[in-house]
């Protein structure tokens, strides 16, 4: 135990504890008070975490990268989302949806999805739904 | 336009907020009112006041006030935030999320609102939303490790493992100095990352990471275990063997290590090698049980006999009471089932002479003899090898040797239970309890047996010996507080047996609510676990919570509740004129009593309230605590008064079907409910699922025929609302009946092929009565005749009796007397 305790450790509680209790309490603080309080918080955070262990430059770079992947990822998921509807441009008879809601007690969204995934054929949808999973 | 506060009032507003935080609600309200006197339409103050009122238990008023606050100041994020908090408090998380989102739109930089939103999103399993929130939170505070870890967790939960790993790596790269070795948070984060790598299936990378970054992790055991697992997966036999051997040296009783070692050595099929391995460890660790017990699982024939003999001698010499419990898993093999008692008998025979020869061991051997008798008593009480008279004989011998043994009396009580004599069983269990009044285990057993004998008051008294004395509301309240699920289940089932529907439903609903509480309990951990850095445990918890209602505690209580609701549907309480059932009469009286009691209590409460008003300074605390806790339906009268029992049953049934679809009891219960609700497609779904599990099951057989009969009449009926499409699907998917055979023939075939099984015979007979009502008298005679089947059990006879009763059969009395003759010790046929 010769090692020095990292600066983030506070006697009796982790910094996390301290940080956390403050926000819970200020749940409905008005804007100015909130700003004042959080400006009290932030410098200490940066000192604690950023002072020794964290390379601020590296953090910036990492954040940039993250933003990059984030958007890339965002678009890719968007693409997937776009793909799915493209595959499933299926005309759905509202009467069939109503039938599924009535018979299977599904929500409207789920019933529509089920119907779409069976090309709008209500019999197929019913059949698939009641077949026991292997 | 929102009103603007003066400087002085802004100070006051801050006081309000502080008072709320410090839970000084009265002061807070006072200060808020002071502001409102001058600025009656100040939205933020109104909102804060609403929040404080909610904490005082005035939920409805709080909601009303919060709405006023919003009308005064639509653009205030405080008002929206409070609105969200109120919804959160009443557990309407979806509305709360909407309110938070609106607040966040007005105040995009508020970390507090963002944080509250994120916690709700993960609680509601909106992983995509959670991911976005966490990303925003990281942008706001990129230097805190927590922010990064949280984002990784969000990716992980959202199913994107490599992204999660990448986030953690990004953070690691920002560190200038390596974290200290004693940094617990770092150590856990490293192990979390390791689990992410392994979960992606790249064991080489996981091993490399473990050996480099995880080398000095503080969780040493996890390091050793993971290393052994990875080495095995990678086929590095020699190192894996070594790793597992090291683990066994750490803990020689853990079966998983032996399994791992055997797998690593590649000797799963080689019995001789396995035996040798276990022998080696048995020798190395003379006190080790696992190395001696485990070989019995795979050994056969003489080898088994020899090993089992050694094992039994060793255990009985020490008088280990759990010897049978430890060995009964072997009883699925009939050879082992026959061998084990023979060995014990041998032990008894030889032990006696030994005791004479070597008086020095007399203490030990006497222990051995009683332990051996005890083993045999349990053996003959076990369902695979039941012979209750013999069991009783042996347990009496054991008790003779040790008259004060709690264990022996416990088994004796259990034998009485199997005789079908719950009264005697309860008596003996109570006797066992008095032998050691400070033992909680025997205390709960005694209470359970009292419940089985429908002695609810006595059971509660027994339990009361161990509950906290000062709990308001007595032992029952404490058992609820302590979430004592087994007691509530047994109590509910006991009430159900006695026909006290309301109380039974009350108990089952309590259990349902306890599971809700467990679901809500995770809320605190979304932030707590991150703060403490224990991510692996957190992920485990999330997975567990997702499957919470799989637990048998839930399915048992829920099935019982559904059963009660079915009975309620078939025989509504309000027209208790069904004649034959005395339970109904009881219940009516019970309900009258309950209503009277409730009236009295209400009057009493009123008087007390008046009394309290007269002394305003006294007991204000109690008043504040009370409104949240008060139960307005202590006897479940409201639950039993339901007009739509089938809809109420759905509350219990839906999670059952979702989480325990492989249980045949669940599927058959689902069928019953859906049939009564005329949801034929869903009933068919349950039926098909049940048939896929076991087509010959007695209930499934009955349900197949009943379904056929029901849909035939439904399809012919002119009032049928079933659409042609549905009709076609039902007809084509209902493939459980052979097309060419008639129902009668189908049923007769079933009966013929299961004529030795009482339960299936009963099922076929009730089907016969259904499809040809003319045959009723012969059916009743045939039901009575199941008593002559050699394999019939007490429980099956009881079912037969219930069936006869439900038919109002004239055979009931004759059946009862011949059953009582067949099982003279049973009380259930009296």
Features:
heterodimer, A: 134 residues, mainly alpha, 2 domains, two-stranded antiparallel ribbon, 6 helices, B: 830 residues, Serine Threonine Protein Phosphatase 5, Tetratricopeptide repeat, globular
Give a summary of the structure in a few sentences.
The complex is a heterodimer of chains A (134) and B (830). By secondary structure, chain A is mostly helical. Helix content of chain A is 69%, strand content 3%.
Molecular structure report:
The complex is a heterodimer of chains A (134) and B (830). Chain A is elongated, with a radius of gyration of 27 Å. Chain A has two domains: 18-83, no CATH class; 94-130. In chain A, strands 1-2 form a two-stranded antiparallel sheet. Chain A has helices at residues 15-25, 31-51, 56-87, 94-104, 108-116, 122-130, and strands at residues 9-10, 13-14. In chain A, a hairpin with a 2-residue loop joins strand 1 and strand 2 (13-14). Chain A is mostly helical. With 830 residues, chain B is mainly alpha-helical. Among the domains of chain B are: 1-73, Serine Threonine Protein Phosphatase 5, Tetratricopeptide repeat, CATH 1.25.40.10; 741-830. Residues 355-363, 575-587 and 615-628 of chain B have low confidence and may be disordered. Classes of the chains: A mainly alpha (134), B mainly alpha (830). At the A-B interface, helix 1, helix 2, helix 3, helix 4 and helix 6 of A face helix 1, helix 3, helix 5, helix 7 and helix 8 of B.
